Amino acid sequence: MSRIDVQLYLVPLGAVNSLSHYVALYDAWYARHVYCPFSSALPFVPHMDSESGACQASRASPVSCFEELVSSFVSEASQTLPVVCYQCECYGEGEDGTTQLLQTVPFTSRLELGPHIDKQQQQAASSSSGHRRMSWFELRDDRAKASPVDVSLSYSVINVLGVARQTQAAEKRSVMAIVLSNVGRCNERAPCPQPGKEWLEMYTAGSEPVKRRKSKSVAEYDYSRVQHIGRCAVESSTSFHVCIDGEYFGPYTKISVSASRAPGSTDAIKVGIRHFLPLSS
Prior knowledge:
4 helices; 17% helix; 3-stranded mixed beta sheet
């Protein structure tokens, strides 16, 4: 894998594409000629319906126009954004009653867990017409109706050079949400991580609501943001679900997120995302 240079041309056809949104924030040409045309929910533009999950397109879809956009994108995009690949190892109770590795989810760019994820997973499982996935930052009054989750959280802190600075010992917390991300979610009011760097950003929401002066919602919580973390592990005595890049997984009792590496290599695996202009920060 270390000898293979994988480069992708990313076209946002789904309801939410956080990585494409990140590139569009810093590459105006990509935003105008790729992100905006293909992520539009206009009736004549092929798109994914966030409610039903089905592909929607009218009979008058301007196919020739989109073919030209894709053709120019492939032929003219000369810049490459290296994106670090992460994996999530998921553990649960095995047949013999011991904790075992049940599943490994590759290409993880964003993970979220909490009582709101368990509730949304139940709603999605019981709904035949599809379900809109909402981030913790998008929720408002529903926060007050949820019960916190007791977890044991451990992680390693990374400095600006990408070197492990310290390892946080396992700490028991009662949290409403934990978010791990190397790509910011679309329209999310949070600092944007850097997908090309070998670190994640972690957000945790405490279990006690606080009163904000200019907020009418009673369900506002203190956020704790930890920049630049490496491997992160979350363990709980009760099973929980996780939402990884918009898909539900679980239930598990423990997860571990770290950068993917080829066997025998110390370097993280990266995938190149093609775009037009040099990204400006």
